[in-house]
Amino acid sequence: MSERLEIELAGGFTDSSGAVHRRLVFGKRLTGADLIRADHNYGRVSQVGFECEACAAALVEFGTLARDEMPHALLSLSVIERAEAEEAYDRFLAQTAPDRRPEPLSDDTVRLAFGVRRGGVTYTDVTFGYLLTGWDEVHADERRLTGVERNLHLMGLQVVRLAAEGVESIETGLTLTDFEGMEAGDITALRDAAEQWYEGVLAAHLKKRFGDGDGAGEAVN
Questions:
Q1: Which end of the chain is more exposed for a tag (fewer CB within 10 A), N or C?
Q2: Where are the alpha helices (DSSP H) in 59-183?
């Protein structure tokens, strides 16, 4: 199976010398490090800038452009051709790992497609179990974490266990270093799993406090 996907744009990007670059070749799955870098460069001021920076990180060729020219070139495409490039990246992901998809194992645990690498071991099963406090957010602010980095840091704190078939589980959270090496699709799956776990914990708390009703308008003594 090919580890690359190539498309030819109709219009493409015309550089300052007049050369037209139409050929896009995708050959890299995005990682957490790519997302953090894209956020640093564009994401804090522009969502479309973030998306083009991230898309550029997945390219191994854009005509004959240098790598640092690719984000600018993607931003210069028409909205139609930019969408075409994004759709091509989605097809590249499906093509390069058709049988690897994250899946929920329980209300608090998700199995990742690629996993987290720690000490030579790849852990695929991630369990949530820690509720954030205000101090966690204060400490993140003290570290001047913002954007993607802040979100990943706080999500990592909520993790309590890593496991995989055939190896002993470890009681630990996830660090920014862990996220930097993770595949971006796995990070998305973790975000979704964290939200679902929290919603389940919140629903259980409300039910315990107020019963089957929503508790609205009830006094707390």
A1: C
A2: 70-76, 79-96, 134-142, 147-158, 176-181
